[in-house]
């Protein structure tokens, strides 16, 4: 169980702007499964929504604190026995304490020791503007299965986007609640802390359960989910190999970027500037090179 949230950090200008015009829309996407799509005015500017899902009486993800004033009251009238977080980023875990504490129900998160890692302990300005500070809590380790009122959700460890990432599979409906496991179908910009090789393994692990539909944490659906997951894994794997080949040929970081990503450089530069370099295509190349073993030193010449 989580302790009470830490006292408010105060309504800074970023928080004031980020919370404006928070709204919520609920729809049933399968029997007993409701998607709660939330968005603020700032989030609509960047074309981003966050969509927790209530599966019977288990809530998957808790949204960012900037939408807490519309999300938490709506959930107050719902039966919730547990809050299962796909990963610890503030747009997915922000309101977990406010939802779980009044009910005395558990919050589950893989690798809870990493709750404040990968930038969440000291949010950059853009993350404070878009999502807001996450509430403080002490989640319990993720169990292998989470029973709901009408089914059992299977927790699938899927690190790569971040170390705590978990997807949830519902064998009854064939839905895979994937968080940020697959947000773009091809190779794309990533955050500073991501691990592309680990992501490839996670994509294949999720595909192995044979999901019918993939439901992301941002309200996007992918039919033919297994094919989508495997295709993404293949593309990322090929990009990793290409980065390493070019690196071995002595190409510069800039040359590798230009070869790997042929278009959209202006948009990528804007996103990199907006996020203080935390999110960009260059981070994909950096992550691959970080994980690339250094070539062995040649043996010394014979005496």
Key terms for this structure?
single chain, 303 residues, alpha/beta, Metallo-beta-lactamase, Chain A, 6-stranded mixed beta sheet, 15 strands, 32% helix, disordered N terminus
Summarize the helices and strands and which ones pair or pack:
Elements: H1 13-18, E1 23-30, E2 33-39, H2 41-45, E3 53-55, E4 58-60, H3 68-75, E5 82-84, H4 90-93, H5 96-100, E6 107-109, H6 125-130, E7 140-141, E8 145-147, E9 152-157, E10 166-170, E11 175-179, E12 190-191, H7 196-207, E13 213-216, E14 221-223, H8 225-248, H9 253-260, H10 265-274, E15 279-280, H11 281-290
Parallel strand pairs: 4-5, 5-6, 6-7, 11-13
Antiparallel strand pairs: 1-2, 2-3, 3-4, 8-9, 9-10, 10-11, 12-15, 13-14
Helix pairs in contact: 7-8, 8-9, 9-11
Report a brief summary of the structure:
With 303 residues, the protein is an alpha/beta fold. It has eleven helices and 15 strands.
Describe this structure as you would to a colleague.
By secondary structure, this protein is α/β, with parallel strands linked by helices. The chain folds into two domains: 143 residues, Ribonuclease Z/Hydroxyacylglutathione hydrolase-like (Metallo-beta-lactamase, Chain A, 4-Layer Sandwich), CATH 3.60.15.10; 142 residues, Metallo-beta-lactamase, Chain A. Helix content is 32%, strand content 19%. The protein contains eleven helices and 15 strands. The strands form three sheets. Strands 1-2-3-4-5-6-7 form a seven-stranded mixed β-sheet. It has a six-stranded mixed β-sheet with strand order 8-9-10-11-13-14. Strands 12-15 form a two-stranded antiparallel ribbon. Helix 7 runs antiparallel to helix 8. The protein starts with 12 loop residues before the first helix and ends in a 13-residue tail after the last helix. The N terminus is likely disordered.
């Amino acid at each position: 169980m989580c302790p009470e949230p830490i006292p408010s950090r105060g309504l800074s200008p970023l928080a004031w702007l980020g919370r404006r015009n928070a709204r919520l829309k609920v729809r049933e996407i399968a029997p007993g499964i409701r998607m709660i799509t939330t968005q603020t005015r700032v989030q609509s500017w960047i074309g981003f929504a966050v969509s927790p899902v209530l599966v019977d009486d288990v809530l998957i993800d808790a949204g960012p604190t900037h939408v807490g004033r519309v999300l938490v009251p709506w959930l107050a009238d719902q039966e919730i026995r547990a809050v299962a977080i796909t990963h610890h980023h503030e747009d997915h875990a922000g309101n977990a304490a406010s939802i779980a504490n009044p009910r005395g129900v558990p919050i589950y998160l893989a690798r809870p020791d990493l709750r404040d890692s990968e930038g969440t302990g000291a949010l950059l300005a853009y993350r404070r503007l878009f999502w807001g500070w996450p509430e403080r809590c002490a989640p319990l380790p993720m169990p292998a299965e989470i029973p709901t009122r009408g089914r059992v959700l299977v927790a699938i460890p899927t690190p790569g986007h971040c170390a705590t990432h978990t997807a949830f599979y519902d064998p009854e409906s064939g839905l895979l609640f994937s968080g940020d496991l697959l947000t773009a179908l091809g190779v794309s910009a990533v955050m500073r802390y991501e691990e592309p090789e680990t992501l490839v393994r996670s994509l294949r692990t999720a595909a192995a359960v044979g999901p019918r539909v993939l439901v992301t944490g941002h309200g996007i659906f992918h039919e033919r989910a297994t094919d989508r997951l495997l295709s993404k894994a293949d593309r990322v794997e090929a990009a990793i190999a290409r980065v390493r080949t070019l690196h071995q040929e002595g190409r510069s970081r800039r040359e590798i970027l230009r070869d790997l990503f042929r278009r959209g450089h202006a948009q990528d530069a804007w996103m990199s500037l907006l996020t203080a370099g935390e999110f960009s295509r260059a981070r994909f190349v950096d992550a691959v090179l970080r994980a690339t073993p250094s070539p062995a030193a040649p043996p010394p010449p014979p005496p």
